UniProtKB/TrEMBL annotation, chains A, B:
Coiled-coil parts of chain: 240-267
Prephenate/arogenate dehydrogenase domain sequence ranges: 3-291
Superkingdom in the source lineage: Bacteria
Keywords: Coiled coil, Oxidoreductase
Keyword set includes Transcription regulation: no
Pfam families: PDH_C (PF20463), PDH_N (PF02153)
UniProt-recorded name of the protein: Prephenate/arogenate dehydrogenase domain-containing protein
Length: 294, 294
């Protein structure tokens, strides 16, 4: 399907994309660039990329598909760096967790060429970073949210949908703003809460003792607190308004539960816990498939 | 090691204990009782118990070991129900997630016989309830916290330690109060937060839409929100002071993160996320083994 993938950012997300594309036979060559030369080198040694590029521009040169897999705050600078080589035939995508800021960055950086850019967010990840953890199956069975801009060329949009579908993903389209509102609630806020819980515990004199006693519930609840701090710094800042609004709603829900505890209102507490428990017990990951939301 | 286990409460925790005891060859017979006759019946059909008892008292009759696996608020009434048949030779344990209230309930219910009671909390569980999900391996490799009272007979204490060790657990001893303070932080609060997050999301008009988009991070973070509402109502009420105190610390940590977001203070935010991420990345479940705390 593609001759040459220009991969900018050879970490977990980018490296896994390259491996998945190769495994699916969707690309002939992968030219890769990472900010850290040792990462690019390691990516080649591991067979994640075929050729090392010394710059983002050279990674994009001659590519018919370019993937940006960098922290979202680096999107604009990266797109500016490759702008001179962007052609209308080139499909450019990212994999960032926020989309309104990425769409804005693309408009500013690419200007007339912004139609080549298809913002994408695959709903996957791991709590470990780095090309060493890249795996061809990271995207398999996951949802991918595509948030086209008003300028996105529809041929590129269809190509992007076909590509992700061929990688075993279910594609959903929505606006960047709807995306950011939804993921503030179900992804960005949970990360913020997990980070806050760890810091609240370690801020206590007995914190280490407490952590040594924690079991499987704690393990799963806090898994995402081990996520990459720079990636999450960017996400929490880029989508801060939606995240702060969701955090307010969360604190209200928490305080409603606390009130029932303080009052010893067992029935009210049980009712609220039952609502949460039943909702979560019936929830299935990715239950809604490939639909358009707004 | 034991002739007869009297199992009071044949759900996930009790049923799994019976299966583990049988598998390890530690008990000859299991006599079981559950409040719901259909549960007791099902437990016998599944081979979790050998004989159905029509009451807690009859489940305890003739047993040399009794396990209470009931919601913590039922501890006192259950111990009162079996008091007439409690002998100094009988080892009685529970598996409740709170310990100060359970120790108090045991003192009130058993009076002179309280020395037979060894309060225990195995750090395990699943988000599904019921004897159908009972499994012999639920306790394998887990920590068990034993919180003896001032009256606990030391022979029983040693027997309890040997038993849990034989089931593949690591035993830690501490006071009921230290236990409740620690588990408020690493278990009870995370459950409260997970319940609150689900209710905050479903309380929004777009809640169902948002939930349909959630991925693996959300799945793991909220797994414990599917826990049994009655069990958790009891735990949150029994340990409410410690949980509310931990919730205050948590909200302060959350608001410190929010402040950095509001101010756009990327460095401060990154520093706090790095602290949390490194702490969680280095954490290992049950790293502290079989030590005495206070």
């Amino acid at each position: 399907m593609f001759e040459q993938l220009g991969l900018i950012g050879c970490g977990l997300m980018g490296g896994s994309f390259a491996l998945a594309m190769k495994k699916a036979g969707l690309v002939k060559r992968v030219v890769g660039y990472s900010k850290s030369p040792s990462t690019t080198d390691r990516a080649r040694q591991l067979g994640v990329i075929d050729i090392e590029a010394p710059s983002a521009l050279l990674a994009a040169a001659g590519a018919d598909i370019v993937l940006l897999a960098v922290p979202v705050s680096a999107t604009e600078a990266t797109l500016k760096a490759i702008k001179h080589l962007v052609t209308p035939q080139m499909l450019i995508m990212d994999v960032g967790s926020t989309k309104a800021d990425v769409a804005q960055a693309a408009r500013r950086a690419l200007r007339d060429q912004v139609g080549s850019f298809v913002p994408a967010h695959p709903i996957t990840g791991r709590e470990v970073a780095g090309v060493e953890h890249a795996e061809a199956e990271l995207y398999l069975g996951r949802q991918v949210i595509i948030t086209p801009t008003e300028r996105t060329i529809s041929a590129h949009l269809h190509k992007a949908e076909e590509l992700w579908t061929a990688l075993g993903c279910r594609v959903t389209q929505m606006s960047p703003e709807s995306h950011d509102a939804a993921f503030a609630a179900v992804s960005h806020l949970p990360h913020l809460l997990a980070f806050a819980l760890i810091n609240a515990i370690t801020g206590q004199a007995e914190g280490d003792e407490y952590l040594a006693l924690a079991g499987p519930g704690f393990r799963d609840f806090t898994r995402i607190a081990a996520s990459d701090p720079k990636v999450w710094r960017d996400i929490l800042l880029a989508n801060r308004e939606e995240v702060l609004a969701q955090s307010q709603r969360f604190q209200q829900a928490l305080q409603t539960l606390e009130k029932a505890m303080q009052e010893g209102n067992a029935q009210s507490l049980e009712d609220m816990l039952t609502l949460a428990s039943e909702t979560r017990a019936h929830w299935r990951m990715g239950a809604q498939r490939g639909t358009k939301i707004r």
